[in-house]
Amino acid sequence: MKQNRTDEAIRNLSGLVFRFPKTEEAAQAIEQQALLYLKAKNSSEAQALYDRLLERYPESPTTARVWSAEADALFASEEFGKAFSIYQKIEKLLPPKSIEKLEVTRILAEGDGDPQKILPIAEKALNENNTALAKTLYEQLSKSSKIGSSLPQIQTKLGWCLLLEGGEENQARAERLWRGVIHSTQPTDRWYAESRWHLVQLAAGPKRDWKEAVSICDQIVKEQLVGTFPHEQALFSKAWLLTVHDQGKSAVAAFEDLAADYPKKMQQPPIQRHLERAVASAAKKSGGSR
């Protein structure tokens, strides 16, 4: 092989398969023959050898490696039906990452790429904390030409999966996705509001920037109508953030804003406890200043 004596190499490899047909080395020899045919640009003969490998050595690690690589390549090129067909044949031999792709290709192939069929499955996976599956489905859907008006929903959910997965790169991409949804929709759109709220979570959580989170809450209050959940949520979240970061006077003012629009909410014991903490913080700072 190293001397490019291809015909002689193939004959020797064939002889090995003939003499030791029940060994792993025989499976490896078939793979090497296929590679030599590919090098000689004889793809049909190479494919015939790969088919023989699967037929004769269905439980071989070599078969699993060769065919899972083929299926992964088809998956990457979004030929999900073909990838699924291969994954099925070697399901028992698949490594964990390929097993996940098997499930994805099954869903995408059976759903024919229809977002309305696949979105509920992605949503279910996300609700069951199977973030990896949900992320992959949303990722594939985001590239589909069939998504239409579902794109903001898919991008919002994909961003959330990325945030849950963690890492600075994922966080940065999630933020870009949410800002893209905000740019392409209106405040009255559900996914506009949800993307804006996720930016609050990102700022208050991984970015550790509570001031940015409060600023986004102020944006939400201006954009959303009184009586809507996003409006109420933003008012409370602002008050809560100011309280836990010991901004007593500002926190009390924020709770007053919440009470003005949602007086019944102030009757809830948890809200009352937060307000008491804010009042105590404000009094402490006021006493200290004197």
Order of helices and strands: HHHHHHHHHHHHHHH
Number of helices: 15
Helix fraction bin: over 70%
CATH class of the largest domain: Mainly Alpha
Biggest sheet layout:
none
Output the radius of gyration. Answer: 29 Å
The beta-strand count equals 0
Number of domains: 3
Give me the CATH fold name of the largest domain.
Answer: Serine Threonine Protein Phosphatase 5, Tetratricopeptide repeat
Uncertain parts: none
Report strand %. Answer: under 5%
Write down the overall geometry: elongated
Q: On the 0-100 scale, what is the average pLDDT? A: 91
Tell me the CATH architecture of the largest domain.
Alpha Horseshoe
Structural class: mainly alpha
